[in-house]
């Protein structure tokens, strides 16, 4: 902020000697990430959002739109107005009209085509376009579906169609002994467990991923493990659930309430997996399901009639103790992954 927009425009728009087509300037707005702000390269933006849960970011052609995305309530002083060279200073009144017009900016370009794990919200939305929307989805790939989602006006509409689970924190209603162990149970007698995945440098070379399983304070069955196979946050989420379920089956636990902050995991296993199986592990658009090895294992475990599993969504980074502890264990798992690989 603080850079006169007129100056930026002179770099980008044909007010000076530069022609429009030579300008490839882009502004990446990060409203939710490690550090919110406007970045001028995808690499800088990526550092703020990659692996960051619920990251929110968009690409714009002008800094002005990008800054509005980061801080929609900011009002600009008239002197920050873009004024074509030689033109008269615009009036504050016309500025105001302009601000109102771009309050809901149009997304003019597709997001960079990079091979990275999409942030949780994006992945969930993109998957829903393919799997959850009753309209035929044609031959869209997951990424094309994401691009479409980004289009102005449709954005909110689409978001409202994503199956989202309300945050539900399991209240411990009592304790239950199973074998040599003691577990907290909820009012319906389900053993309470929190699971989480973690990935450092998600989607980049040198990524390290792990998962955490948390039954309670200092519980002997709490686990912090490196992932196996693909090294992404989502793999961590799935393998954490697998670990929790295996533990429960081994011990003879009959009811398990898994609390996770991954809407994607819950939607995958409760909504979409049935269709994937019918189509031989293909999406509706015939693309292969990612992380199929892990999803197959999770699904097979869930067929075991001796265990009933209930899924709870909990919001991440909200101080929900079980989730915070599972997150900590997951990060320990990522650190272990790093140790093993180096
Ligand atoms: C269900 O889990 C139990 C405990 O691990 C195991 O002994 C049994 O073989 C499993 N059943 C099936 C059908 O996989």
TrEMBL record:
Residues 187-335 form the RNase H type-1 domain. SUPFAM superfamilies: L9 N-domain-like, Ribonuclease H-like. GO terms for molecular function: magnesium ion binding; nucleic acid binding; RNA-DNA hybrid ribonuclease activity. Gene3D superfamilies: Ribonuclease H-like superfamily/Ribonuclease H, Ribonuclease H1, N-terminal domain. This is Ribonuclease H1. The lineage of its organism: Eukaryota, Metazoa, Ecdysozoa, Arthropoda, Hexapoda. Its EC number is 3.1.26.4. GO terms for cellular component: mitochondrion; nucleus. Endonuclease that specifically degrades the RNA of RNA-DNA hybrids. Belongs to the RNase H family. It comes from Drosophila ananassae. Its cofactor is Mg(2+). InterPro entries: Ribosomal_bL9/RNase_H1_N, RNase_H, RNase_H1_euk, RNase_H1_N, RNase_H1_N_sf, RNaseH-like_sf, RNaseH_domain, RNaseH_sf. It holds the Pfam family Cauli_VI. Keywords: Endonuclease, Hydrolase, Magnesium, Metal-binding, Nuclease, Signal.
